[in-house]
Every structure is written in C-alpha cells, then in structure tokens.
Amino acid sequence: MGRFVWVGRALVGGGLLAVVDWPAAVKAVGAGGLPCSRSEGCVLRIGASIAGGVPVDLGECLSTLDKYNVGLVVEAVLHANGGRGAGEVTR
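Above: the chain's sequence. Below: its structure in token form.
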C-alpha cells in the first residue's frame, strides 16, 4: 500500500478508512507501470469510473470480460446505485 492506496483511522469513531488515488492507478495501468492482464486493467478502470469518476470506454472494457466478471461489474453498478445485496453473480 502507499502507491495508490492509503489506510488510516477516522478522526470521529476511529473506524478504518482507505483512500484510493483512482486517476493515478488508471494512469499507471495505461503506462504499463502496474502489471496486470487486459481484463484486470479493465476491471480497475470500471471500478475507478464508479468510485472516482474516471472516464472509461465501457464498450472496450466490457468486451474483454468473461461472463463472471461482467456479473461482478453488474453487482458493482447495482451497489453504487444503492442496491446492496441485489443478488448473486451468475457464474
């Protein structure tokens, strides 16, 4: 941790918090500085878009994913829209 993710305690309540530098992580993937497969990079880009507003080409990214990972993306979108516990991912 420390390159793109920082962990600390909340000032109020003392809960554990994490901060992700989404734009830096996506930039590192694009520059080859964060080794991963093409589909892993796309999952990161989609997550960065949902969590941090980083633009993503969904057509390009979704076409690289298998059915299971597309299901995970669907779950993430539902979660981001307030649909926590919307269902299990189809395998």
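The beta strands are 5-9, 16-20.
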